[in-house]
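Z., the sequence and structure:
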Amino acid sequence: MMRALLLTLAAAGVSACASAKSPACAPAHAQPGATVTCEVPGFPRRPYDIHLPASYSPSNPVPVILAIHGGGGNARAAARTGCPGGEIESPDCLHAAANREGVAVVYPNGTGARLAPNVRTWNAGGGTRGWQCVSGRACKDGVDDVAYFKALLEHLARWVAVDPKRVYATGLSNGAAMSHRLACQMGERIAAIAAVGGANQFATTAACTPPRPVPVLQIHGTADPCWAYAGGAAACAQRDDLPKISVDESMRTWATINGCTSAGGAERLASEPGIETARISWSGCRAETALIRMDGGGHVWPGGWGYLGERIIGPRVDGWSANRVILEFFRAHPMPDSPAR
């Protein structure tokens, strides 16, 4: 079942660029409105796709969002996930909405499976002390994905004028958990994160010690069958009896790191049949710490692509747009002038 699920995800989002030889990207490739695929030095067959806004100019450094695919996906699948109906040319896709705001979006690629190179995963943490290894081959093989993202950002800065104070990370599931790990270990470079359907598994087996408080937005459904809101053993066709961290424990970790004093009440954001969405914000924090809880929602990108049926990923959420909320959150949180605690 797990193999069938991963192959389904990969087939839904296979990128020709991930198998073809990608260009040695240079400033000449950084044209307004361009979509470019580039290899990451030192990480063969793991290229990234970047969507540059039409307003891009080398004289005006551009904010960048790292949009990280889920387990079994790839860069193309990540791009489709943030699009209604999976239509990658839709004006409501994450990259399209971000580009209109003058923001570039990067879709990176994790480590491919041996027999299915576009079935890719990230080493988002866990794997010891009785915690699930998230996720798949990348975690079990100990792939250094933090080094991958450092190399990607270093390479990107060679040919694109990147605003170093406005580099962000988001993702679904395994990609969300990888966003948490980047906040823990690259807090001096990642200005803020927005994690959808995946929590801070890295903190279960290692110290999460960013050099500064990091703004964190968690988006999660209480009916998520793949990363249960309450944590626990793997589900959603995964064969692993070890647990994932709960959303509440993950948020407590960030509340402690960010110096929060208490969690506020729930503010209603949206309502649709069977699903109520509320935002919970912690108070007294040195960096915004917030949870959007979708009561009755599944393992989904709100307003995005329902990439598999509800039998596997739970109820879809269509009453609001994660793209809009995430872009608003990132816009509000550039890197502070001093990264020190």
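The chain has one domain: 2-331. The first helix runs from residue 2 to 13.

Let me know what you think.
H.
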